[in-house]
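Late entry, written up from scratch paper. The run itself happened at the end of the previous shift, but nothing got recorded in the book at the time, so transcribing now.
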Amino acid sequence: MRLAHDWCKLNDKSHASKNDVRQITHADDVGYDLWTALLIDAQSGSPLAPMQVHLKTSEAVHSTAEDVPTPETSHLAQVGPTMQESSTWGLPQTIVHVIDREADSLGRMRTWNADGHRFVIRCDDRRVRWDGESWLISEIVDTLDREMLFESVGEAKHQGHSVTQEVAEAEIVLDRPHTECRKGEKRTVSGRPLPLRLVVLRLIDDEDFIVAQWTLLTNVASSEISAQTVAYWHYRR
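Output as recorded:
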């Protein structure tokens, strides 16, 4: 099963009677901060149930969690406790946590991996180790493309149009230092090398143009789940 973590803003500046809205970015951007952990069927991609919800107002966090975050808790700091709590839900299958680019944090990924949690995270370009050498993820993608290692894995929809899905993957290692905040100070931490799979999903239109592309990092082994399935999980998200 997959658990999709996501945050959204509930804009409520037009409702003057609500006195518990919070400022989200600038002074005119007010409302509520909603976070949901949505359980999704791994085969069909259909939503099953919201397993945990936090609604952050200016005064409190209204939550279904046992470990309720404070209003000051950052988005990423909410993820770990939910991962831990998910192991107590008694679900019949292993949970894979699927999170968008906001979770592209090396320090967090090291912690989640060490705690035994499985994840698929959309990532930005970053420097990694591939075949013993230092590469940017964008350089790896270009190499996979140049060596014609992308495989067509079926049809999909993009903005209402039919497209072709193509997938490629590479075994990489994240071995660079990361930054942590300890006692109010930012410190650089070396951390252990983290072996992951880089899965690249791209959508190709009927004129052979790339209309969308995502780079994903996962600690789910290739012997358990194919790159095509990892890509499908994110596409359905």
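Helices lie at 75-86, 106-114, 137-146, 227-236.
(Scratch paper discarded after transcription.)
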